Each structure stands twice: as C-alpha cells, then as structure tokens.
Amino acid sequence: MDFIIALVALVLGIGGGYFVRKLIAQQSVASAETKAAHLIEETRTKQKELLVEAKDKALAVIEEAKREKEVQMRDVAAQQRRLQQREELFDRKLLEFEDKQQQLQDARHKVDHVKEELLKLKEDSLKKLEAIAGLTREEAARTLLERTERDVKDELLSRIRKLERETSEEWERRARHYIATAMERCASSHAVETTTTVVALPNDEMKGRIIGREGRNIKAFEQLTGVEIVVDETPQTIVISGFSLLRRHIAKIALEKLILDGRIHPGRIEEALDAAKKEIALEIKKAGEDAAYEVGVVGLDPKLLQILGRLKYRTSYGHNVLAHSIEVGHLSGLLAEELGANVTVAKKGGLLHDIGKAVDHEIQGAHTDLGRDIMKKFGLPEEIAYIAIAHHEDHPSTLEGIIVKVADAISGARPGARKDTFEQYVQRLEELEKLATSFEGVEKCYAIQAGREIRVFVHPDKIDDWTAQKLARDIANKIEAELKYPGEIRVTLIRERRVIEYAR
C-alpha cells in the first residue's frame, strides 16, 4: 500500500514537475518573443532615424556640390572670357605685326632702291672726277696720302717723338725702380773662370810618391779621374787641371785622402776615388737642400734636389750655375712681389730654370727641354715646368715666365757675373756692327760700352728724319731676332749734315 502511494506520489510529482516546467518554458518563450519584438521595433526606429539623417546629409552634400559646381562654372566662364579676350588681343597684335612687317619690307625695298641709285650716282660722279682729274681712284688716293704725309710729316714725327719719349721715360723709370729694388736686395759674388785646382802637399817628397815608379801612380790616377796632374817645381804644391769642376773636385778629395794615408798605389787610388765619389754625392744632396732652403722653396722631391745639387759643379762663362740659379730664384721672387705675380711659381721656376744643365752632358737634347721634362717627371705643374723653356723664348706666354727671363738676364748681365773670352767679346762686337751696316743708307757704325750700345751714322741725303726713326726701330728688331745677348743693347742713330764754307 505504501508502495502504491509512493508510486502515485512519484507519478504525480513527475506530472506536476513537467507541467510546471512547461509553464515556465512558455512564459520564457513569451518573454523572449516580447524582447525580440521590442528590439526589432527599436531597430526599425533607429533605421528610420539613420535613413532620415543620411538623406539630410546627402541633400547637404548635393547642395554643397551644386554650390562648388556653380563656383567652378563661374571660374571657367571667367577664364574662357579672359582667353577669348587674349586671343582677340593676340589676333590684333598679329595683324599689326604683319602690317608693320609689310611696311618694313616696303621701306627696305625703297632703301635698296635709293641705295642702288646713290651707288650709281657715286660711280658716275667718280668716273666724271677721274675723267676731269685724269687720275684713277687708286692714283688719287695715293697722291692724296703722299701730299698729306708730306704736309704733316714733321708734325707727326714731333708728336711721335714726344709720345715715345714720355712713354719710354715713364716705363723706364718704373722698370728701373723694380729692377733696382730687386738687385739691391740680392747681393751675389763675382764669377772667376778657372780650369785648375791646387792641392797642398806636406813636403816635396810626396810628389815622387804621387808619381810612383815609372809614373804608374800618376797615370792610373789620371786615367781613373779624367783629369791631368801637373807636377812642377812649385814647392809643396801640385795642380789638378781639367774642364770638369766635378772631376777636379773628386780628384782633389781622393788625392788629399791618399796624401793623408800615405799609401799610394793603383789599388789604393781606386778605393780613395770610390770614397771621394760617395762624399761628393752627399755634398751634392746637401747643396741642393741648402739651395732650396736659401731661396725659400719647399716641397721638392729629394731626387730632384739631388739633381739640383749637381749644378754646384757646373759653370757657364765662369759663373757657377747653382749660384746663378739661387740668384735668379731670389730676383724672381722679389720681382714677382713688386709686380703682383705668383711668388711661389716665380721662385720655384727661377731656382729650377737651368736644372737641365745638370744632365745635358749625359743626355742628348737642349737644357731647356731637358729641364722641362725633369720638372714634369717629378710632378711639378706645367706653369713651373714651362719656365725652363720660357726663359729662352722671345715672348713668354706667362707673367712668371717673363719675370724669370728678366731675372736670368739681370743675373747674367750684371758686372762680374760672367767671364767672356776675348775672342767671344770681339765676335759679339763684330756681329753687332755687321748687322747694322747691312741696312741701306748706313754709312758706318761703332759698337761701344762693351757691346751694350751701338751708334749708327747714316747718309743725311738718303735718310730723312722720318726714315731715321723707322730705321732705328728696324735695327733694334733685327738685333732682338738674330743675336743672342744678355741684357739690353741701345741703338743710337745719328743723322747730321755738316756744311763747311771758307771766307777768303
């Protein structure tokens, strides 16, 4: 019984639970449907609001676009009007230009026509004048020029002389100032030409040891050095003779070493000569470095300084070439300062202008070309390398080249700088006189002032004042073109007529 009651209660409990659950589910579904319907309603309301808002914005954008379009249309219309106005203006200008061009062409045709008529009239007038005068146009022009020249010759000559005198005096004054200033600031020694070197001996017995048995020592020494040993009766002295200063100096050092050592024989002579050559090499290097330091030139290659130092043992007309190069370097720098040129280029060019002479006895070619090649080989710029050639050119193309040429002439022409032989001196004077007498109308001439001036006497009946002026210039030009000389040669032309009468 209890079991049935429990079973009935269980069945009733399950049925009641199911009913309650179903009821709760129905209420939940109803509530969800209500919420969904509410959400759908809210969504529709928002959708309508968004649509209305979007329509309003679209309308606003459309209105703004219409306004911008209207503005653009107005701008386009204004631009079109301006373009149309410009086109109309351009058309009018083009028409005016075509009209003016046509007018110019018409005027040109008229001018050409008038010109042809004038030329025709001129030709007719010239023909009539030639017929009346009995002269052609060229003959009349020549006659007029001759008469004009004859009438104004004296006046022109006087004017030319005055201008030349004023100009030459001014430039000569300035040139003398520059050159004198440079020369006063640069003092150099005088040249002494010699071909011998004297070696002192401790005693006369040393002469016999130098000569050796049957002269073998002196013969070996002369053969190895290329110089001549003069042993005479002069006490405690022998003389080394030779044209090469370098060989004489090497021989002197070697001989002094042999005398100091006391052992003199062919083997020892070779050793002494080798030691002397090494010593000379060091002296050459030091001489090049000292020369560059003295002039104030820096940045030169050590090998180039070695070549420069060799000029210490090279002479020209008795003038030591290294001393000459140092002097030219100083003068070039001083002149460059006065004239506002490149002082560095002038100094380097002046110091190295004769460097080709250091190797011209070993390599074929002129020292100018060799010097330029050497400087270019060691990386010097063309403006400096060119000076090696420029100082022997008639008209150097650079200011620094002209300065070095002038400095070279000053160094070579100053008193005591060079030593000419008597034969060379006479030959130069003869060449000057021969050149002057080659001109027509020259009666006689004399070279004076050691070749620094030449006085030319002309026939007064063949040469007038005007021609004398031209003849003096022609003689000077020919001297410049044909003769090689240091410094300046003054040409003085003398034309005079002497009339002698006797009163009895």
Automatic annotation (TrEMBL):
**Superkingdom assignment:** Bacteria
The EC code for this enzyme is 3.1.-.-
Query: Entry's SMART domains?
Result: HDc, KH
Molecular functions (GO terms): hydrolase activity; RNA binding; RNA endonuclease activity
For the keyword Nuclease, the answer is yes
Alphabetized UniProt keyword annotations: Coiled coil, Endonuclease, Hydrolase, Nuclease, RNA-binding
The reply to whether NAD figures as a keyword in the UniProt entry is no
Q: Which GO annotations describe the biological process of this protein?
A: mRNA catabolic process
Domain HD as annotated: residue spans: 321-413
A Gene Ontology cellular component where this protein is annotated is: plasma membrane
Per the database entry, which stretches of residues form a coiled coil? 48-166
Pfam families found in the cross-reference section = HD (PF01966), KH_1 (PF00013), RNase_Y_N (PF12072)
The record's section on InterPro entries has: HD/PDEase_dom (IPR003607), HD_domain (IPR006674), HDIG_dom (IPR006675), KH_dom (IPR004087), KH_dom_type_1 (IPR004088), KH_dom_type_1_sf (IPR036612), Ribonuclease_Y (IPR017705), RNase_Y_N (IPR022711)
Which family is annotated?
Belongs to the RNase Y family.
Q: What does this protein do?
A: Endoribonuclease that initiates mRNA decay.
- Name of the protein in its database record: Ribonuclease Y
Q: Which organism is it from?
A: Candidatus Uhrbacteria bacterium RIFCSPHIGHO2_12_FULL_54_23
**What taxonomic lineage is listed for the species of origin?**
Bacteria, Candidatus Uhriibacteriota
